[in-house]
Amino acid sequence: MLSRPRTMIARPKIARTARGFATLLLAAAVAVSASVNAVAQGVPVVRDAEIEALVRDYARPIFKAAGLANDGIDIVLVNDQSFNAFVTGRRLFINTGALVAAETPNEIIGVIAHEAGHIAGGHQQKLRDQLDRAKTMAIIATLLGAGAMVAGATTNSRGLAGAGMGVAAGGGEMAQRSILAYQRGEEITADRSAITYLNATGQSGMGMLKTFGRFQSALSLSGTQLDPYRISHPMPQERIANLEALVKASPYVDNVDPPTLQQRHDMMRIKIAAYMQGQAAVSRLMRKNPTSLASRYGDAQQTYLYGNPGAALTKTAALIKEQPKNPYFQELRGDILMKVNKPKDAADAYAKAVSLDPARSGLLMVSLGQALMAVGTPDSVKKAVTQLNNGIGRDKENAEAYRYLAQAYGELGQIPAADLATAEGHFYSADYKNAKIFAMRAQQKLKRGEPGWLRAQDIINYTPSNKLK
Length: 469
Ligand SMILES: [Zn+2]
What we know:
Blueprint: H1 5-9, H2 32-40, E1 45-46, H3 49-65, E2 74-78, E3 85-87, E4 91-95, H4 96-101, H5 105-120, H6 125-133, H7 136-154, H8 172-177, H9 184-200, H10 206-220, H11 228-232, H12 237-249, H13 259-277, H14 279-287, H15 293-306, H16 309-322, H17 327-339, H18 343-356, H19 362-375, H20 378-394, H21 399-411, H22 415-428, H23 432-445, H24 451-461
Parallel strand pairs: 2-4
Antiparallel strand pairs: 1-2, 3-4
């Protein structure tokens, strides 16, 4: 969605109220249907090919060292400025606030290593299994509900207490009871495991120590910012001291992230700042090194977002000249060209992005599909259908992509396929009522038993469970 700037600029209303996903023991008891409605007003998930690929690259070696599934990890970026991260098994949820707060990849990698330690230790396994079966939107809703409840329970009346919205109704007692998500022993185990994984991959634990140490000191202040991560992961002084000893005993303590990885990290931070936080945040990040590639990337992005598409194109062309194989520079070029209504050129840029992208992100394919639709010839709309289906193939829950696909099928006169795609779009937005209406409409024109008909039947038969049980 960072790749879809117009939705990104319209900052989700929920950003202020969603306090992230803490104290996950709560989640099992949270009524999902209520939360989904609250979240549906402004989806707090952001999508971005570049950031998802980078976080996946952080996680992959750690997961491998931990003996966890190391392929097909879905990265879910939660649009929230607080710090949080959670792994269900095949999905890694991380707040954009955590990514911006981290000055190095190592800080995030350390947190992922700690989370992998919780998984390997079987901590909160039952909840994790429940969450892994649930759809991403339902989890987000549940996690946000849980976070909001915790916020309400721990800050008494001021500020965040109102953040629970309707979701927290009746949940206060539950929040009180399970406020400590992980037990102290589990934290020590997870820290030890994290060091094992970092050692196995030749990485330092200093980033993890820095992050956790920051929480530790922040806890002693009466901060108004409530990081859900800090609540679910208790960090008494002795834990930090033990961790420090482990980190410093490692032969890899002085290892730093490879420069190319650090550069990608810097570009990610400035991108989040540009799209989510505004120009002041970009300037702050640029100040350190105004001529770095990351700074010039941030400059090109904010020129595009807030200023002058022509100048942004020039700045992006300079970036492409410097890194011709960077798919995300091509993507930015495509975004700018879409904004100035040059869909044919945009399609060329997105096509380059797709061909250069080692992660084969479905998002870039969907962008290409949209540009081809905007070109508007029958031939390009047909190509758009192919690209949109490719994108959905990589990314089954992309509700927005189904809506474009429905439009493309509609333009081609393929009405049953359009209705089914509309049904899918509603389905993955958790609007089951409209999903069923369109699935039934599609079925009327489809042959009984064919794949589309069967998929429509699945949607018609789907019963959202009220609880994650
Ligand atoms: Zn922990």
